[in-house]
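Checklist before submission:
- one chain only
- standard amino acids only
- sequence pasted in full

Submission:
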Amino acid sequence: MTGRNPEDYLPLTEAMFHVLVTLADGDKHGYVVLKEVETRTGGQVQLSTGTLYGLIKRLLGEGLIVETRQRPPAADDDGRRRYYRLTPFGRDVARAEAARLQKLVAAARAASLLPGRI
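Returned file contents:
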């Protein structure tokens, strides 16, 4: 998997980007990812479980995330849960997408579509 270019994976769908952003600050299981995406977006992005697990399957297949074997203490865990972690390459892809979006926002500001300076 070495030698891959993160920009080859762009643009990401909005939902995919939000999943990667959510995993950027630590391992999480699916339901937590679902709820954090909803919270981070103020309810504007609400993933169904089917959509989320379809995205997870794709992200796993592309090596952007992995299922981790590390689990919280048994008292805080449910053995049925699967926990996911962003891979270093997944982080590179998320960073590349964030930079792409930043350029789009800068262009919108330059065209006076958004307030603020370039």
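Reviewer check: The chain has four helices and three strands.
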